[in-house]
Write a structure and sequence with these properties.
Pfam family, one: DUF3224
Strand order of the largest sheet: 6-5-4-3-2-1-8-7
Number of domains: 1
CATH superfamily: SO1590-like
Largest sheet: 8 strands, antiparallel
Protein name: DUF3224 domain-containing protein
Organism: Rhizobium lusitanum
CATH topology: AOC barrel-like
Distance between the termini: 6 Å
């Protein structure tokens, strides 16, 4: 079945390691509210260039949640770029990463941050 889940999430980022060098590492902890109910843990690698508004990050995030009345886990892969302020972000379910009632889950997530609030729009398919 094809579906769309929407809602908000709270996120806590914390530096991992000494923070030395041009590439930083952060831990990710999220709580999802709305159509996707649950939590996630993950890790992000990020680089900010010397040019204002230019940066990149990648992340892996393991989600434990309830979605469409089904419970399980799945992994999201993030790839984000900023080019002098112009942003692009891809967040997708890693194929075959879902377990239990979410086995077979596929999809992409759009994240919008407005005035500090994090909203998501998750377009997904889930076998019957």
């Amino acid at each position: 079945m094809k579906n769309e889940a929407t809602g908000t999430f709270d996120v806590k980022l914390a530096p991992v390691g000494g923070g030395e060098g041009p590439i930083g590492s952060m831990s990710i902890n999220k709580t999802f509210h709305g159509d996707l109910q649950g939590t996630s843990v993950g890790q992000m690698l990020a680089f900010r260039s010397s040019v204002e508004g230019s940066a990149g990050y990648v992340a892996m995030e393991r989600v434990t949640a309830s979605l469409n009345g089904r419970q399980g886990t799945f992994t999201l892969q993030h790839s984000g770029l900023m080019d002098k302020g112009a942003q692009s972000l891809t967040v997708a379910v890693v194929p075959d990463s879902a377990t239990e009632g979410l086995t077979g889950l596929a999809g992409t997530m759009n994240i919008v941050v407005t005035s500090g609030q994090h909203d998501y729009q998750f377009r997904y398919t889930l076998p019957d």
